[in-house]
Write a structure and sequence with these properties.
The complex is a heterodimer of chains A (about 260) and B (about 250). Chain A is mainly α. Chain A contains nine helices and no strands. Chain A has one domain. In chain B, strands 6-7-8-3-9-10 form a six-stranded mixed beta sheet, with helices on both faces. Chain B has a four-stranded antiparallel beta sheet with strand order 2-1-4-5, covered by helices on one side. The termini of chain B are far apart. The chains are: A mainly alpha (about 260), B alpha/beta (about 250). At the A-B interface, helix 1 and helix 5 of A face helix 2 and helix 3 of B. Bound molecules: adenosine-5'-triphosphate and magnesium ion. Magnesium ion binds next to helix 1 of chain B.
Chain lengths: ~260, ~250
């Protein structure tokens, strides 16, 4: 067989493997055996472990956004819109995407390097020898962990961002606090909340599947580990941003927003 | 009995095994010698179905395992006790949990019974004191001993498979492992050890194979090995009588 043909074949079978992993990993939710201890451990690592970094980043994003808007809007005399614009952009867009990116940077690289070194150290083979399905034992808990923790982190991050925005609007830009909160309440309508909360589930699922896949397909020693860790983070980032656009488009269509 | 019938295997474009054939009864003590990257680990993984051959058949205990799926292979794998290179202990679990891993999967033992069994197994290799340690706290020799005990805790294997069991150990620890390997063959069980250490292979095995460039270059007993004129084997054998230091 020609080299090119083999490469194309490999590429297609890699893609198949990825779909298989994503699907079977999710199916593990309802199939036995279910490794609940591993799920708890993953939730602790990915959720509790990312808590403070998400708080910090969200706070500063909220403040920076509010600051930028104050400068621009007060020049035009539209300062009272700060709350509305901060609210919409945080809840619908910046909150979910930023939280997911930070999460992917931290958890994606962690998962890929952990699973990668398990592969290189024959630990994954050992699991199979003991009759344990690595998808069920390693992938499903990580998918569940992300499906639960990323949405939770996103809600916390959104709240902190909005509080940061409030601080700047009221104490730096000297706005009325009640106007800010009234606009935020107005922004918290069904459409915005739904579009803001569907995203983290999808992003979490993508990040978990991509990083598990990259980790489990590691080969070639330390260099290989570097490659799969980097790929896990880069691919997660790209997929999160692409998926964000697609989701936004689809949700706009569903909710009938006119452009 | 393990039978390889013209088995070929490749990782992508790199062909590792080229039509390898042999048969090994479960009670035989076999050493498969070969250099780094010659496909020794690959061969062991094929025996337990962790990898699938590109062509050829693999028969274990009269059953053709070539096309078996993961569930059907569970049964086949319980016939072996396999110890991977460097031990492959789960580094998130301590020594006790590593050894108990198979027991928890395969048996319905109570916590107390598991504890007793684990202590018993560790006692056999003089490592009771290490029961709470994590793998990273163990020395190379301890790691291999724990790995060997883990591999046989849950099943009653018919044959042992060792991947480089003594590689990277000092002579004293290598000696401990070799003795353990011999002890475990009591009752007529055999093993396959893949290694590049001729010295240890000669202490342990009665049959020798030499793997090179994806083919078996040699298959025979000790005397045949010592008298072989194959240049690669001669190079391997120099490990036994090292040349004198070069003098001017
Ligand atoms: N997952 C993999 N993907 C691609 N190539 C691989 C993979 N695993 C091993 N190889 C390559 O296949 C060849 C045989 O590998 P194998 O691990 O069986 O060798 P080995 O004889 O056990 O070597 P060592 O003494 O280093 O353990 C090597 O050249 C290795 O680089
Ligand atoms: Mg090897």
């Amino acid at each position: 067989m020609k080299k090119e043909t083999i490469h194309i074949k490999e590429w297609i079978s890699d893609l198949q493997d990825f779909y298989f992993l994503s699907f079977q990993g999710l199916l593990g939710l309802v199939k036995r055996p279910f490794y609940s201890k591993d799920v708890i451990e993953q939730m602790d690592y990915s959720g509790a472990g990312s808590f403070f970094i998400i708080l910090l980043i969200s706070l500063f994003i909220g403040m920076a956004l509010s600051l930028q808007l104050s400068a621009e809007l007060s020049a035009m005399g539209f300062k009272m819109y700060i709350g509305k614009i901060v609210g919409v952009s945080i809840i619908r867009e910046i909150g979910p995407v930023m939280t997911a990116l930070v999460y992917a940077g931290r958890v994606g690289s962690g998962v890929a390097s952990e699973l990668g070194s398990m592969v290189l150290g024959h630990q994954v083979d050992t699991l199979r020898v003991f009759g344990v399905d690595p998808l069920r034992k390693l992938v499903t808990p990580r998918i569940i962990g992300s499906l639960i923790m990323l949405p939770a982190l996103t809600i916390i991050g959104d709240t902190v961002s909005i509080l940061g925005g409030y601080y700047i609007a009221v104490f730096v830009s000297h706005q009325s606090g009640s106007v800010y909160w009234t606009s935020i309440r107005g922004v918290l309508n069904f459409e915005n909340v739904v579009s803001g909360s569907i995203k983290p589930f999808i992003f979490g699922y993508l990040t978990a599947c991509i990083s598990c896949y990259m980790g489990l397909s590691t080969k070639g020693g330390a260099i290989g580990l570097r490659r799969s860790t980097t790929r896990a983070v880069v691919a997660s980032f790209v997929m999160i941003i692409v998926a964000d656009f697609i989701l936004t488009r689809v949700l706009f269509y569903i909710f009938g927003f006119s452009l | 009995m393990i039978v390889f019938d013209r088995v070929s295997f490749s990782y992508g474009i790199q062909q590792v095994l080229k039509g390898v054939s042999f048969s090994i009864p479960f009670n035989e003590r076999v050493a498969i010698l070969g250099g780094s990257g010659d496909g020794k680990t690959t061969l062991l993984k094929l025996i337990v179905g962790l990898l699938k051959p590109d062509s050829g058949r693999i028969v274990v205990d009269g059953e053709d395992i070539t096309d078996k799926n993961e569930d059907e292979l569970r049964e086949v794998r319980t016939k072996f006790s396999i110890v991977f290179q460097e031990g492959a202990l789960f580094d998130s679990l301590n020594v006790k949990e590593n050894i108990a891993f198979g027991l928890r999967e395969y048996s319905k033992m109570t916590e107390e019974e598991i504890d007793k069994k684990v202590r018993g197994l560790l006692g056999e290799v003089g490592l009771e004191h290490a029961i709470e340690l994590m793998p990273e706290e163990l020395s190379g020799g301890m790691l291999r001993r724990v790995a060997i005990m883990r591999s046989l805790a849950a099943f009653d294997p018919k044959m042992f498979l060792y991947d480089e069991a003594t590689t990277g150990l000092d002579p004293v620890n290598a000696d401990i492992i070799c003795k353990l390997i011999v002890d475990l063959t009591q009752g007529g069980k055999g093993f396959i050890i893949v290694t590049h250490k001729v010295f240890d292979a000669l202490r342990l095995a009665e049959r020798f194979m030499f793997l090179k460039n994806g083919s078996i270059l040699f298959d025979g007993n000790r005397d045949q090995l010592m008298q072989s004129s194959i240049p690669e084997i001669r190079v391997f054998l120099t490990e036994l009588n090292p040349p004198l230091p070069a003098s001017s």
